[in-house]
Amino acid sequence: MKTTKVLAIDFGASTGRAIIGSFDGEKITLEEIHRFENTPISTENALYWDFDMQFGEIKIALKKAAEYSPVSVGIDTWGVDFGLIGKDGKLLENPAHYRDSRTDNIFEKAFAIMPKKEIYEQTGIQFMQFNTLYQLLSLKLYRNDFLKRADKLLFVPNLFNYHLTGKMQSEYSFVSTTQLQNPRTGKLDDKILDAFEIDKSIFAEIVDSGSDAGTLKSEICQELNIKPIKIVNVAAHDTASAVVAVPSTDDDFLYISSGTWSLMGIENDTPIINEQSFAEDFTNEGGYNRNVRFLKNIMGLWLVQESRRQWKREGEDISFAELEKQALDAPSFRSFIDTEDTVFLHAGDIPSRIREFCKNSGQPVPETKGEIMRCIYESLAFKYRSTKEKIEKLVGKTYDTVHIVGGGGKDKLLCQFSANATGSKVITGPTEATALGNIAVQLIADGKIKDIKEARKIIANSSSLETYLPNDSESFNTAYQKFIKLIG
Q1: Could you give the CA distance from residue 142 to residue 144 in angstroms, rounded to a whole number?
Q2: Does the annotation count 238 as an active-site position?
Q3: Catalytic residue among 76, 81, 189, 238
Q4: What is the pLDDT of residue 248?
Q5: Is the pTM higher than 0.85?
Q6: How far apart are the C-alpha atoms of 419 and 290, rounded to whole Å?
């Protein structure tokens, strides 16, 4: 079989990469051809994404990729964020960053319009203040004149595709993150739109993962001196792409997509929306083939990343490897945090917030970097166990293996703690799950791979996987009871 090459452009919340995926009929090999910082624009009152910079980096990636002659391009990004297009077809302003403070304290206003439980019954989505629904509510309340200037709303990956091809679309997996979609119908929920007085005509057509997003505009081809290339709507929400790449031979498996966020869940044919899932705030997001990713959003390695940035701001540029070593050397099970507390959501001095949380909850205050890192790692591992137990209760079955995909799989200490805490075998890899899922969907769309089941076998065959077995179970079990009593 002739080798087929495709280009995956994967935007994370802090960096972006362009990766060539080459498929020889048996394995997919990856080559990173471009990497860039995805730094937001911070003003006195707002936090925005730098769209011109981002689109410029996409052009650089396309230019570099031309020598590989890829048959298609797919773009995935984080969820929920969007740009507004005016009647002249131009972007009105940079998309707001989901960590912007404009949705602080928004829930009280939202639930006055529609009760929380009713919102959940219609959407099945976890309540996070930055969901698209609440971003739009904030605009209606405080910038309605600006919102009225918009002719169309395009979610970030589709906004990139629009500027590449001229086609306005909304990819299914991304729309499912917004708390605007009904997971039973796969359509925008009229009850939600009507209650919040959101104009349905502002949204582009919802299309499936793997569908055609158009061909690169002739003017961009001329500008970059490259040939036209097909753009594919991959599973545009990065977690949906990552889940495509879980290397499981079973149809039913438990995964953590581990990076800035840890998204822990299962794949399901239908949404799970009931009293228990509402009480536990689980989410039903869409995936490839319109399946349901039933999962929990957990704060994840943001806590580690932002702590390191804070220490760097203070003049100490310490590596992740050194932080992991200091965590291993620190005393165990002294202090825990609720990783989901909104005090940890925004950028800034996370170490001080951790100390304050521990002080306010009557625990020993972690002082050293190692103690803070140990607190983060153990809290995350116990959060994984708590989430696993809740999922098992909701679906009525147990999982003896946890698949960790994404960059977090490189954090060996967290992976071992996760095995110890959950009492389960942990299989890590691929670390480039999002890019591999993006690439796999393009290859399926091109007819080179039959379906997602075959894609997962190929990805498993193409990846280096590592297994962690639980140990130190007794001490972790004892500490977990302390965690549950404190955090709940």
Answers
A1: 6
A2: yes
A3: 238
A4: 95
A5: yes
A6: 31
